[in-house]
Amino acid sequence: MRGFLPIVIAVAALATVPAFVHSNVVLNFLVVALMIALAGQGWNILGGYGGQYSFGHAAFFGTGAYVTAILQVHYGVNAWIGFAAGILAGAAVGAIIGGLAFRAGLRSSYFALVTLAFAEVLRILASVAPITGAGVGLLVKLDLRAQSFQFQSRAIFYYVILALVAIALVIAQLLERSRFGTWLIAVRENEDAAMALGVNAFAVKLAAMVLSAAITAAAGCFYVQYFLFIDSGIAYGTWISIEALLTPIIGGAGSVFGALVGALVVKSLGEGAKLIAGDVPGLDLMIYGAVLIAVIRFAPRGLVGAFIDARERLARRFAASRPPVREAIRG
Amino acid sequence: MSKQKMPFSRRRFLATTALGAAAAASGSLAMPSILRAQGAGVKLGLLHPVTGALSYSGQQGRIGATMAVDEINAAGGIKALGGAKIDPILGDAQSTPDGGTAEVEKMNSAEVSCVVGGYASSICLAVSQAAARYDLPYVVDVGVADSIVTRGLKNTFRFGPGFGVIAKTALDNLTTINDQAGKPAKTVIIVHEDSLFGSGLAKLLNAQLPPKGFEILETIPHPTPTRDFANVVLKIKAQNPDLVIPANYYNEYVLLARTMQEQHVRPKGVYSVLGGAASSYKFVKDFPDAAKYIMDCNHWFNPKSAKAMELKKRVEDKGQFFTYELYLNYSAVLLVADALERAASTDRAKLTTALENSTFASPIMPYGPTKFVNGQNQGAAPVSTQVLDNDIKAILPPEFANAKAVFPMPA
Amino acid sequence: MLSPLILISAVLNGLMTGAVYALVALGLTLIYGVLHIINFAHGALLSAALFAAFFAFQKLGLDPYLAAFLIAPAFFGLGYALQRLVIGPASHGDDRNMLLVTLGLAVLIENALLYAFRADTRTVDLAYGFASIDLGFTFLAVPRAISFAAVFFVALALWLMMILTDTGKAIRAVAKEKLGAELAGIDVAHIYAMTFGLGTACVAIAACLLIPTYYANPRAGNAFVLVAFTVVVLGGMGSVPGALIGGLVIGVVESLAGFYFGESLGQVGIFLIFIAVLLVRPRGLFGASA
Q: Is C288 part of a structural domain of the chain?
């Protein structure tokens, strides 16, 4: 249970935010940041722990979003059921893409490119298919009641997304301590060696993909409930594929909190850049791009990685200051 | 974008961006009292996608809106409020609905009385619903999707026409022009961009053209952006329609027109509906030959209005083009100012009521009498234009026309 | 519409657009083949080059085809500097970090263009911009024909450079086996930078060939990126002849798919090929075995 303590503390701390922050500006910012963190945590399972970098996580985000939107708009299905269906649909798409890609033995950049291509195919299909509203998109009816998974108060949306992120954090923590997690990390470190040791790399990667897809799909479903509008560019656009991979990498891929830290930092960076740049178009994003490059320059293993490095360095310095005799006795 | 506005609004930003708000919420940054002293005016949120894919349109919209604000302030501000100046709070929607939503939150927390802008329908949808949470009145500048005003949101107003009205007027005008020329046109090919505006319009055209006696040979969707129109033009050439009806954004429209010229494809008429470049001075200036005789049914200003011509000259003297985003935003801000005068208050509820009852007639727009029903101005209408003599002339309706249609296109 | 003449026109159109794709992909395949990074900044660099071509015409009165001789070396220098000073140091040699750095660069460059030049679309109106050769069943636009021919020259020049010059050999060595090349005394950082520079120069040439019929704005290059990736994958990562042939094939496929399924849906054809190649023969037509 000890390993879960950081999660409990972090979630509890975040849960208190609406109690003393009433600004909807901040709440909206946090809701969006947490949604991106959720999508990123999904990516993290496959990319951070599994080492399979996907450039097309929009495929899952968009599928979750469209399925829940289509069910609500065209079939009058309840939003919560739609939410569950969206997650399942996302997982199914993950299984298909993963099955095809891993069966073909695709790795690293080839895998990345194929996921990109799948996301593009889905985007194009969604932009012409009548059921997705084609170019027009889908508008979910405004119905601010809990049973429609819509809320008047932004704080409630915040609690919902926080709960989802908490679940994703717990999943990552359970993964780290499970045998499945060990296999996954082994595959990441050296797939051939893992296979030689008897790990069924295909099954492990596929399972990670399905889990990853399900989590990111949940973020997509949430998007629809929060913004009530979806179209092919929003659902399957490269923007979400990029955010889903950017945030865990910046935060620290392969760590429980990487995606959360990354999302909060990256989004705050965006806001900070706007503060500095003011109204001049383009300047804030220039700053954003420059800082991104700087972060990678100085914290290549992400912020969590940098934090761990710093902690270790401090520990070593502390240990080095101890008298050597004691160290020798301790062995 | 006037340079001297920058330091002023940057301070606004400090108060209104999330970090500022968070810092203020945690008390670590005391709200400078100097802000309060300067903020005696009426706060108006101006929200446009000035970065991202729609940045050109967003920037044009912002120019139009800020020109109106400057004019109103120079003329003495809102007299009913003791000459209070309009204090514009500029927002960047970053060409996405979530960007727009975040800006509305900031504007709300900056206590704006009203928000104007949005531009793209998907952004307008998000902005209207975000603003509705606070009963914050919102005036759409361009966004033509009918869904924006049919969701039952009491806070949302649109001064300009939606695409139902635009499509209908376009077709009525087309029929008139065709009839007047002796009905030379029967067959049509529609070329449209495949997102919300193009697809929505194409659907309406497909439903309404056949009953008017036109035969649609093909409806050709294309993505935005499209790199090349050679095949689209090949299909047009192969089927030789009397009319080509494009509905797309500026860049694609230009590529289409240029490719048609390159391939010597000259139908009897090119009649766009919300054509991206068809009624754009930039297009006419850059490609006079490709632009000749092209007709459009689009947002337009009243060419018979002296005020409109004065505004046009002012804009052109600054080296800008007088585009629809500009004058639609200009009018929207004037609409809000008029409502502020009548409400004699910055209170959102009173302002909303004033907008509902507004009969404000924009001095520069070719509209019928203003009347808002469910937030939509019933007097709003598009104008049919044609590129003639290296200039864009209005050809219909007659009360705003300053030229006669030339149809079919001379060989 | 199945008339053979129309079909031939469509194929011809495909070849013309394919030539441009090939040129954009040439730069990308080199960078990919040697640095093993998916250069996210490629589209932004193309946009920057389009602006350069535009300004060369507008301010210096230079015809784009002539401006290429000026802009390509300039962009070579830019690419070299970017890799040597920004991407290389920032990425610590890790492929994944390089990817993120190019992403950051893409955002930086695109918005720098927006900040500096605003968002309006710029076009050049050349005297021969609309000139076309009458082939009877269709008109072949002169600028497109020039691009088509130019691509073969550039590809040939690049290929010869790779085979005959020391730098070219060094580049191929590093692409094949970085450690071995390093041990043999090749300055890998310099080669990386040379490759990036060459790739960027190719993009600059593509821009000069494009500007007569296309346009410049901060996002103009983005439209070509995914297609360029597809060409790289089809042709084989790192293969110059692959990029050329792959480009032409993709151009024709896109054209025919667009013709039969519509411009919007037809784009799917490109990505289905992309996926098929990756699943069945990832090394593409001419690439080295994975």
A: no
Q: What is the pLDDT of residue A168?
A: 96
Report d(CA B300, CA A209) in Å as an integer: 52
- Å from A192 to nearest chain C CA? 15
Q: How many domains does chain A have?
A: 1
Return the DSSP state at B212. Answer: G
At A229, which CATH number?
1.10.3470
> DSSP letters along A151-199, please?
-S-HHHHHHHHHHHHHHHHHHHHHHHHSHHHHHHHHHHH-HHHHHHTT-
Question: What's the CA angle centered on C144, arms C138 and C146, to 5 degrees?
Answer: 120
Q: E strand or H helix at A80, and its extent?
A: helix A79-103
- Residue C286 is assigned to a structural domain of this protein: no
Question: For chain B, which domains are there?
Answer: 39-161+305-377 (3.40.50.2300), 164-298+383-396 (3.40.50.2300)
pTM of the model: 0.88
Q: How many CB atoms lie within 10 A of CB B43?
A: 17
At residue A156, φ and ψ (nearest 5 deg) are -70, -40
R_g over Cα of chain A: 21
Residue C33: inside a domain? yes
Number of independent structural domains in chain C: 1
Mean pLDDT of A49-58: 93
Domain interval for residue C274 = 4-280
Q: Find chain B residues with C-beta within 8 A of A23's C-beta.
A: 21-22, 24-25, 109
Rounded to whole angstroms, the Cα distance separating A77 from A74 reads: 8
Q: Which of A29, A231, A275 sits opposite B102 (nearest CB)?
A: A29
**Furthest CA-CA distance within chain C:** 61
Using one digit for the tens of pLDDT, what is the confidence trace for C165-208? 988 888 888 888 888 888 888 888 899 999 999 999 999 999 99
| Inter-chain touch A292–C107, beta carbons under 8 Å | yes
- Tell me, yes or no, whether C48 lies in a domain: yes
Shortest distance, CA B190 to any CA of chain C (angstroms)? 13
CA atoms of A138 and A135, how far apart (whole Å): 9
Residue A298 CB partners (closer than 8 Å, separation 6+): A306
Write the residue in A101, A121, A296 that is nearest to C104 by C-beta.
Answer: A296
Q: Could you tell me how far CA C219 lies from the centroid of its own chain?
A: 15
* Percent share of chain A, pLDDT over 70: 96
In angstroms, how far is CA B21 from the centroid of its own chain? Answer: 32
Query: What domain range is A95 assigned to?
Result: 2-298
Task: For residue B331, give the nearest of B307, B365, B298 by alpha carbon.
Answer: B365
CATH code of residue C219: 1.10.3470
Q: Does C239 touch chain B (CB under 8 A)?
A: no
Which residues are registered as beta bridge partners of C134?
C139
Question: Considering only CB atoms, which chain C residues are within 8 Å of A118?
Answer: 271, 275
Contacts of B256 in chain C (CB under 8 A): none
Whether A51 is in a domain gets the answer: yes
Residue B138 β-bridge partners: B115, B156
Q: Are C135 and C141 in contact (CB under 8 A)?
A: no
Q: Which residues of B touch A281 (CB under 8 A)?
A: 50-51, 55, 58-59, 92
Q: What is the DSSP secondary structure assignment for residue B406, as one 8-state letter?
A: -
* Chain A hits for C97, Cβ within 8 Å: 296, 300
Mean pLDDT of B313-331: 94
C108/A286 touch (CB, cutoff 8 Å), yes or no:
yes
Inter-chain contact A293–C233, Cβ cutoff 8 Å? no
